[in-house]
Amino acid sequence: QRAATTYDRVLLKISGEALMGSLAYGLHPPTVARIAQEVKTVHDMGVEIAMVIGGGNIFRGLSGSAQGMERTTADYMGMLATVMNALAMQSALEGLGIHTRVISAIPMDQVCEPYIRRRAVRHLEKKRVCIFAAGTGNPYFTTDTAATLRAAEMSCEAIFKGTKVDGVYDMDPKKFPEAKRYDRVSYDEVLLQNLGVMDASAIALARDNRMPIVVFSLDEPGGFRGILAGQGTYTIVH
Ligand code: UDP
C-alpha cells in the first residue's frame, strides 16, 4: 500500500563510502543490496527517484593529486569510480525488479546512457530510477555538486542526503556526546559555521535554486521511507 508522502520526485545522494559497509575499500554487496531495498520501499510509494552516488570508496581526486598525480586526471578517475558504483546499484535494484537507467555525464555508450536532460525526465516520469553517474563531468567538482545540479535540472522537490548520522550537528556527534542536532538550519549558517553537510559550492548552488537538503541516517532500516513519510529524525537545510 502507499504511505502518505508529500513528495513526488526526489534525489537521493549517498557517498561512495556508504557502499563500503564494513570494508576498508570498494563495494560490499550486502550493503549495496540493503540500500537498494531502502530505495525500493520508497519507489513502492510511487515516488520518482533520482540518485547520485559518490566514488570515495574507490578513488578520490584529491588523494590522487596528493600522491603526485595531475589533479584533473585524478578527478576523472574519481568520476569513473562513480560509474562503477552506479552500475553496482543498478544491478542490485534490477535484482529487486525495479527498472533503472544509469546516466553518465561522460558519454560511454556501451556501458550506460549519456546525459540528455529531457530523456532523463521522461525516465523519471515512467518511474525508472535514474542513477546519475560521473558527477558533473568536470574536474574540480564533487558528487554533492552533481547531486544539486541534477536535482535542479530534474525539478526534484528536495535532495535527501543519506549519511551515517541522523542530521546536521554543531559538532561531530560520534566524538562529542553533547553535540546538538539542528531540526532546521539555513544554507548561510551551514556555510558560515562550516557544518560539513556538503561542500560549499554544492550548498551555494542549492541556496541559489532554493533546493532543500534533507540530511538523514541511512543506517536506520526503513529510514528513507520513514523520512519521506515525515517520521524519524533529520535536519532540513533550507
Ligand atoms: N569528481 C569530479 N567531478 C564531479 C564529481 C566527482 O571530479 O563532478 C571526482 C572527484 O575527484 C571526487 C571523486 O570524483 O573526489 C569522487 O566523488 P566524491 O568525492 O564526491 O565522492 P563521495 O565523497 O561522495 O564518495
TrEMBL record:
Keywords from the named record: ATP-binding, Cytoplasm, Kinase, Nucleotide-binding, Pyrimidine biosynthesis, Transferase
Catalytic reaction(s) noted: UMP + ATP = UDP + ADP
InterPro entries with a match to the protein in the record: AceGlu_kinase-like_sf (IPR036393), Asp/Glu/Uridylate_kinase (IPR001048), Uridylate_kinase (IPR011817), Uridylate_kinase_bac (IPR015963)
Pfam name, any one: AA_kinase
GO process annotations (BP): 'de novo' CTP biosynthetic process; UDP biosynthetic process
Domain of life: Bacteria
Record carries keyword ATP-binding: yes
Binding-site residues, UMP: 55, 75, 136-143
The enzyme's E.C. designation: 2.7.4.22
Pathway this chain belongs to: Pyrimidine metabolism; CTP biosynthesis via de novo pathway; UDP from UMP (UMPK route): step 1/1
Subunit note: Homohexamer.
UniProt function note: Catalyzes the reversible phosphorylation of UMP to UDP.
PANTHER family: URIDYLATE KINASE (PTHR42833), URIDYLATE KINASE PUMPKIN, CHLOROPLASTIC (PTHR42833:SF4)
Protein name per its UniProtKB record: Uridylate kinase
Species annotation: Mesobaculum littorinae
